[in-house]
Fold this protein.
Amino acid sequence: MLCCTSCITMSYMDVLTIRIPDELARELEAICKRRQQSTSEVVRESLRRYLALEQLREVREQLRPHAEAAGALTDEDVFKAVS
């Protein structure tokens, strides 16, 4: 029954195969050992963070013309305006 539970849990996930340089693989393995997490867990978390940052970058680029029109040319200008 444990196998079936495991299969059901994993059935909603796609499988992604990637090639990475040896040095990156060693760094990833070291992080996984330190955090006591599987490679999949660490890579999923890293990918979530990367995708969130990309979304923020896209929003920032969309808002840039509006910010510049309002006189906000730097991050400091934006922080001052919202603080």
Q: What stands out?
A: Helices lie at 2-10, 22-35, 39-69, 75-82. The radius of gyration is 20 Å. The mean pLDDT is 87. Residues 31-83 form one domain.
